[in-house]
């Protein structure tokens, strides 16, 4: 902590300064200790551990493959103060012939805006996984 001592000749600026100082000291209250992507069978499990999430409204998970131009939103998860969150990505079957790098983005949404965290994993679907993915996509 620190203290600011100052004198102002024009007191009408004091409320504005106080508001700026308040906003400065209450910015982002989110601390993610870990965010990882690991295999769970043929799916990918995302797990993150949070030490501080008092300002978090929700979490958003997005995915980007090497060939994608941007991240695609996968799901939103409400903040539950649980400390540990798990979400399984079971929709990777239908894409890809070879090994590809996949990047997952976790956005901790706060009233001040999102704070981003990233996890990467290599994915190489088997022929069975690609076939199953094609079957699943026909019924969507």
Describe the protein:
With about 140 residues, this protein is of the alpha+beta class. It is about 15% helix and about 45% strand. The protein has helices at about 15-25, 125-140; strands at about 30-40, 45-50, 55-65, 70-80, 85-90, 100-110, 115-125. The strands form 2 sheets. Strands 4-3-6-7 form a 4-stranded antiparallel beta sheet, with no helix packed on it. Strands 1-2-5 form a 3-stranded antiparallel beta sheet, with no helix packed on it.
Explain the layout of strands and helices.
Blueprint: H1 14-25, E1 31-40, E2 43-52, E3 56-65, E4 72-78, E5 84-89, E6 100-110, E7 113-123, H2 127-138
Antiparallel strand pairs: 1-2, 2-5, 3-4, 3-6, 6-7
Summarize the structure.
This protein is α+β, with helices and mostly antiparallel strands and 140 residues long.
Structural key phrases:
140 residues; alpha+beta; Immunoglobulin-like; 4-stranded antiparallel beta sheet; 3-stranded antiparallel beta sheet
Determine the strand fraction and express it as a percent band: over 45%
Shape: elongated
What is the fold-level CATH name, i.e. the topology? Answer: Immunoglobulin-like
Structural classification: alpha+beta
pLDDT < 50 stretches: 1-26
Measured between the Cα atoms of the first and last residue, the distance is 54 Å
Largest sheet: 4 strands, antiparallel
Elements, N to C (H/E): HEEEEEEEH
So, the CATH homologous superfamily? Immunoglobulins
The CATH architecture category equals Sandwich
Overall average residue pLDDT: 75
